[in-house]
From TrEMBL:
Pfam families: Glyco_transf_4, Glycos_transf_1. The lineage of its organism: Eukaryota, Viridiplantae, Streptophyta, Embryophyta, Tracheophyta. CDD domains: GT4_PimA-like (cd03801). Keywords: Glycosyltransferase, Transferase. Residues 1-176 form the Glycosyltransferase subfamily 4-like N-terminal domain. This is Glycosyltransferase subfamily 4-like N-terminal domain-containing protein. InterPro entries: Glyco_trans_1, Glyco_trans_4-like_N. Residues 191-338 form the Glycosyl transferase family domain. One of its GO terms (molecular function) is glycosyltransferase activity.
């Protein structure tokens, strides 16, 4: 969500719009406010580094004393629903909703608690239902709803019972100037991290190395695959408790740690296929789009948000059900197809990403949406030509 917001607001400011952001520093350390051209960032943190809503609104009201703001946009519940009722022209972008989070809890229950014969009296899955009901009740407090996947948009209309006219789909986009197809940088990256020239397939995974991101699934599935496929390698980019466990799998796994932003494109270019084993079907992971921009197919769970908006057909990659058996079968398909097929799929992925998941396209869509909020008497959104 943070990277999405930074990309979007910089792009809108570059288009000439006056953008004011009320947030906290990601490192939870004191920072002075930022004023760069049309982009203004105000930090309103409490003693623990979290958002101080009262302070944020004090700053907001001071700047907006003369009704300067044409609209207010919030990333998920950053603007609490009880305050959203008091602000006109509010739009919210949902990066994850509790209906999807319930699916996450379900998958985690099936994967991690499958050996328990007596279920726990109260599990996270059981606790999720009241949260979902509460969310459905307060969602009408926001005027307009933007979803980052088609499936989430359908849920808001069909399950949350919001009017179709108030629900919109704008897919995430990533900076197409930073994530580019560059085979030479990939070759250098492989050499730097000791991937042999004769490796048959190089897979890559990136992100936080924690349980709910599906790393127990990948760890077990990859350990099974390498028993009969010694030429397959895995590059693991990120930090977290599963880093040490990956290192125990032997020389076919290279644990890289957290990469600098400038290294991410090189990482994607170094692999043949990007693997995202996540058990969290909410929202859309930007790493899938970044890898596609670098010309790489993806291997990912078959969640509605992903197959409905990103891996919309087989030519863009491989999908599996979130369990070890299905994951292993998908890995076997990748290995059977080989590097040449993966390269051709990567070309199709890059073309798809450039047509759907760019920061430019995302900013254009938000710009038109916000202009429609400001001039709703004369503007119709979406147009019949919108996909």
């Amino acid at each position: 969500m943070e990277r999405h917001a930074a990309t979007l607001y910089h792009a809108l400011a570059a288009k000439g719009h006056e953008i004011h952001v009320f947030t906290v520093p990601s490192d939870r350390m004191p920072h002075i406010d930022i004023h760069q051209g049309n982009l203004h960032v105000y930090f309103a943190a409490n003693d623990h580094g979290s958002v101080n809503c009262s302070l944020a609104f004090e700053i907001f009201n001071t700047i907006n004393a003369n009704g300067q703001f044409d609209y207010v946009h919030t990333e998920s519940v950053s603007l609490p629903h009880w305050r959203a009722k008091m602000v006109p022209h509010v739009a919210v972008t949902w990066h994850g909703i509790w209906y999807e989070i319930m699916h996450s809890k379900l998958f985690e229950e099936l994967v991690f608690n499958s050996q328990e014969t007596i279920p726990k009296p109260v599990s996270e899955l059981h606790e999720a239902m009241p949260r979902l009901v509460d969310e459905i009740r307060f969602f009408p407090s926001y005027t307009q709803h933007i979803c980052i996947s088609k499936s989430a948009g359908e849920v808001l209309v069909n399950i949350y019972q919001l009017p179709q006219r108030n629900v919109h789909v704008i897919l995430n986009g990533v900076d197409e100037t930073k994530f580019v197809h560059d085979p030479e940088s990939g070759t250098r990256f492989r050499k730097k991290h000791g991937i042999p020239i004769n490796a048959s397939i190089v897979m890559g995974v990136a992100g936080r190395l924690v349980r709910d991101k599906g790393h127990p699934l990948l760890h077990e599935a990859f350990s099974k695959i390498t028993k009969t496929n010694t030429g397959v390698y895995l590059l693991v980019a990120g930090s977290g408790p599963w880093g040490k466990r990956y290192a125990e799998l032997g020389s076919n796994v290279k644990v890289l740690g957290a990469l600098e932003p400038s290294e991410l494109s090189e990482f994607y270019n170094a692999i043949d296929v990007f693997v995202n084993p996540t058990l969290r079907p909410q929202g859309l992971d930007l790493t899938l789009m970044e890898a596609m921009h670098c010309g790489k197919p993806v291997l990912t769970p078959n969640y509605p948000s992903i197959v409905g908006s990103v891996v919309v057909n087989r030519s863009y990659g491989y999908t599996f059900s979130p369990n070890v058996e299905s994951f292993v079968e998908a890995l076997k398909s990748v290995i059977k197809d080989g590097a040449k097929v993966l390269k051709n799929e990567g070309i199709a992925c890059r073309q798809h990403a450039l047509s759907m998941f760019t920061a430019t396209k995302m900013a254009d869509a938000y710009e038109r949406f916000f202009l429609c909020m400001k001039n709703d008497r004369f503007c119709h959104y979406p147009l019949p030509t919108d996909c």
